[in-house]
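Record format v2
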Amino acid sequence: MSGVIDVSARVPKKLSLSQRLYLPEILGGMAVTMRHFLKNLIRIRNLPTILYPERKRNYSDRFRGKHILKTREDGTLKCVACYMCAQACPAECISIVAGEHPKISYEKYPVVFDIDMLRCVFCGFCVDACPKDAIWMTRDYEMAFFNREEAVFGIDRLREEPGSQVKDGYGYRPYYPGDGTVPPADASSEPVPPGDGERARMRIHGNLPAYRPSAPGVRPGGAP
Amino acid sequence: MSTVLPPALSTASEKIRARLEQSPLAGKVEIRDLDIPTLEVFPENWIDLARFLRDDFQCRYDLYLDLAGVDNLRRPGRKTRFEAVVHLHSLENNDHIRVKVLMPDAESPTLPSAIEVWPAANWFEREAFDLFGFQFTGHPNLRRLLCHDAFVGHALRKDYSPGQRWFFTEEDLRWPDWAKDTNVRAGHFETQTLSIGPSHPATHGIVHLIARMDGERIARAETQIGYMHRCFEKMSETHTWNQVIPYTDRLNYVSAMINGVGYVRTVEKMLGIEIPKRGVLIRTILSEFSRIMDHCVNIGANLVDMGALTNFWYLFQNRENIYGLLEACCGARLTVSYVRIGGLAIDVPSDFVPRCRSLLESIPTFIDDVEKLVTNNRILRNRFEGTGVVTREQAIAWGLTGPMLRASGVAYDVRRSRPYDLYDQFDWDVAIAPDGDNFARYLVRIEEMRQSLKIIRQALDVFPQSGPVNSDDWHVVLPPKDAVYHDMESLIYHFKIVMEGIRVPKGERYEWIEGANGELGFYAVAEGGGGPYRLKPRPPCFPAMACFEKIIEGGSISDAVATLGSLNIIAGELER
């Protein structure tokens, strides 16, 4: 605890003569800006401004970017379609359709797992909510779309391909190397058909559930 | 036979009760002790009580903080369906009280306007009229504020379905009556109405200012807001307690961390849980950095309006570095979503303390450079001194808090008047300036940045190297991940929190902290269930924007731009 200070006493009430004559003050100001200019010129690599498309900011390994669905060693999705991420999502941007997995130890898997990237607020609540370590975030933040349909990412665009490099690296996740927590062990490494198979079959048969935009714009009676 | 005595009142409530007994209001006001003394009154006695509370020498509740409407439709056991909940502060006695005006008429809830007693009530009452349909008799300009004029119904009533959409066209845009006739003074051909905004570089957000100009001077002005209303309060009623946290980031998005801390503190107090010291200090350090960032943005943008562009770059470099620290902690720069009820989303990275220390090294050099460039600059002094003056009496009457109030000479800082977290253990000063003009506000903000650095330095000195950051109450905080993956009981706790939300006991609470631009309060009502029944933030810049039209009257249009910049209006928080 301490007192109260009156900051108006810190500055002179009346400006001095040299301050009222613009020129000395202009020179003093130029000295400050020139110092910054020269410092930046000498250490041009450390400029705070980033020339974006050519150079990119180096984000931390907690960055909350595009999601990724983790896979087991056999290439199947770790997700068991428990709907906890969809429930935790404040923006209600995750829609899941669950299916029965042919392999008995996996029980369930997501037939459809869509994230609407235009609704998503990148809060990371889905990562916190997942009990199976199945959804992480990456450092990929370059998502631009030509239309709204394109912004809905299905399993095909979210799943992590085993063995391939994740674009820009992993971001926000439940545990980090060396923080003492234990990553979950896989149930099995026996290969099974990849998770997208069911979706492809539904698409062929024409019974793939269509994406529903939530909160339909009901126009109440009497509105113009 | 023994009669059941009502529970004994706290000292503060007892004092008010004793004074009320001697006034004509005796027996008409009910006093209860909730988190703060709570008075219940019916509309017919409200104005008498308001005058009593403001003028009585023992009470002196001079600062009108907030008005929150509550619809008790799904809250059984209440006396009336509608309540207007007013929060007041007494600068002299340094305490808060709550007054509930109970409106028996559920069809058209009516109560007298308190604008005569506290001018600050102006916009708060318009907002309650807009969102709840409260009819404030005697209010001079009872029009919608946040919703547009073509809106039908009152959005925060419990029987209003949130899925409805109302379309607004240009014909629905309503201008004030005085703006239509420009020839008030016949023969004075220069009187004309000027529309500034909604999208104008000087408005720093989307604010519509309608001004009647008499030459260069503003004869009369009115601000229209609502272009960025995002239904924060309605949406929080349909989400769980934790899901509101990302929404709070978008209130004051310039210092998002402070909003989150203010919100979760409210819920934590309702739950009655404590956070480990390490968690509290992380919140304090990042909140103070956010405050510096907020002041950097405010001063930088204000100086850009004055044509001093270089300072903007210097101050924004600080902001850039602080964003780097926040991103390393939580993974996002602007919308941090870092706090959780019961602690934090994740512990800070291992290089947190060295990073903070290097920021403590770099930030003062930029502040010094800005001071060298502008504080004694003649142009800036001419533009800032004596413009946008708010006197001490006006500042209190208009309900201003934060740097605005302190620049008018009132040393009210929540961190000092009601030290929360560990603020009472740090050595720092409250910066005030008596003049109340734009220059005073600039000086107060510059000094507050230095004081924040001082607080951070002391917080880092006592920062525990390791330890938990979260409460260990698994009814509130998600269990550690390895426990969730391997342990059934932890998984059940995890499931209950995610799927149903945190069980907050029934009740209500107003918790307030010092936001970057004033007192940031959250009034929360819990009625069982996993989410809030009602959540009302007390936006610090709301009263400042309300009085803007009064401050600029009589000044020139260029001064209005300087003044608007120095109020620190954040549209996200203003309109929620």
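The longest strand of chain A covers residues 108-116.
Residues 22-42 of chain A form the longest helix (21 residues).
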